[in-house]
Amino acid sequence: MQGELLGETHVGPLGIPRDRGWALFDRDTGLGLTARRVPELLFGAARVTADGGVEVVLPDGTVTADERVLSDWLGRRVELRAATENDGAAPTYEDPGDETPDGPVEWAQWQGATGPFHDSPRIRLSLVSTGTLGGWDRRRFRANVLLDGAGEDDLRGEELSLGELGLRIGAPIARCVMTTRPQPGGLERDTSVLKTIHRERDGMLAVRAAITQPGRVRVGDVLGPAAD
Question: Which of 184, 158, 162, 182 has the alpha carbon at shortest distance from 171?
Answer without folding.
Answer: 158
